[in-house]
Every structure is written in C-alpha cells, then in structure tokens.
Structure prediction request, 274 residues.
Amino acid sequence: MRTRHSSDLVQAHEARHMTIALLGYGRFGQAFADLLHDAGHTVAVFDPNAAVPIALRRASLAEAIDGADWIVLAVSVPAIESVLRELKPLLSQGQTVIDVGSVKELPCRLMDELLGADIEHAGTHPLFGPLSLARGERPLRTVLCASELHPETARRTRSLLESLGCEVIERDAASHDRAMAETHALAFFIAKALVDMGIGEDLSMAPPSFLGLANMLAAVRGDAGHLFAAIQRENPYAAEARAALIEHLGAIHRRLSDAEGAALSIPDMNEPPS
Prediction:
C-alpha cells in the first residue's frame, strides 16, 4: 500500500466539502453557483438585485460570508472597490477572497490595497461562461493571478479550481490583461460591429469560412451586456489594441483600392517560409 505523503493529505484536505460565499448572481454567478454545487460545496449567495433561489439566498453580506471558507466576488469590475470596502471589516483570518472578473490588474491591485496581508486573496479569470458550461465543455480553462502578499494562496486556489474541472494557467495580472486585450477585447469589438450591422442573422448562404465568426457572434450575444463595456473600458490595454486593429483595417482597405491591392493575400500558415 502506498504511503500518503503530507502533500497528498493537504490536497485531500483542500478538496473537502466547503462553504463558499458567492457575491453576485448575474448570468456567470448563476452558472458558477451550479458548478460549485455540483462539486459538492455549500453555496451562499448575496445579491440584492437578483432573483436568488431561496435555498441559496442570504439576506445580507454578513450572513452570506458567515462561516464561509471562500468568498467569490462575482460582481462587475467597477463595483469591486465598493464591495471590498464593505467586505473587509466582516472578514476573518482563514477566509480567502477571489474574484472572477475578466480584467485583472485593477481587481488584483484593489485586493492587495484593501485586504492587504491580513486576508488571503487571489485573482482569477474563468475563460468560460454560461454557454460553455451548458455545453459541458471540458477542461474549463481559468487564469490565476497570484498576489505577492499571499503566494501560498495561489496554490490553494489552483487546487480549488482544479477540483471544479478547471485547467489552470498562472500569469501575472499585466500579462493577463495584455493577452485579453488582443483576444477577448478584439473579438468582442469585431463582433459588436457585425451585430450592429445585422450581419450573421441569416446564415443560409454563409460559407464555411464564416462559421467561426458565427460562433463568435453567438458567444457575444450570449454574454451579459455589461461585459462588453467592462472588457473594453476596464482593460488598460484594450484601447491600444482597438486602435491598432482599426489602423491595420484601414491600411488593407486603402491597398485594396489601388494597384498594390492585387498582391494582397493572407499567408498560408502551412507553407514553409521561403
């Protein structure tokens, strides 16, 4: 029989049944609550502006976090500072706070400033949403941004996320936001323009090359309205990425209008470099 090492015992301890306070019950909050419940955890929800099921609903912030091992901030990025300020006096040592926002620099900085060394915390960004969960997609990729004040908390947060079926990617907050500006923000920016133009509503004659865009449009339509504004306005690198995209589109448009446009092509990634 294999002897269980201390690391095995710690992992088993961290995978135990836990009480998790979820602050925010929007579309993602609802889906995340189901994920936590399916993993065997007790979920307590506080959101005075949402229709929370009676079994999960708590009447106040203090009631929601009472006895909770983890507190999950599932609120919009602009609301995080006010929630943290209200939350801090109610927290006890031994409780851990994580956020699930799509932008990381601001939430991570605010948690460091307002929770400090007293309360363990880490930033996370689940790269999935209600649609991904409804389709049963696995693994569920999640970015983890550790706080320099609590390096050990990152390991425990990774264990929690992995117990939910997540594949964890560790990055610093700035690297995360730069990557999201060039992927998440640009995808939503392009999709928003196509949606506003009414493109993609009739796919009866759409060629296979458009189907990837069609999936992107469906994903954008399925996300909450505030998410578009958040990933564009709260990400400090999104404006630069949008400007670069517009500049390149303008250059391509101009080249297509002159003789040089005849030589335009999209490089074949499968061809060896000349």
Notes: The two ends are 58 Å apart (CA to CA). Residues 253 and 261 are 9 Å apart (CA to CA). The longest strand covers residues 120-126.
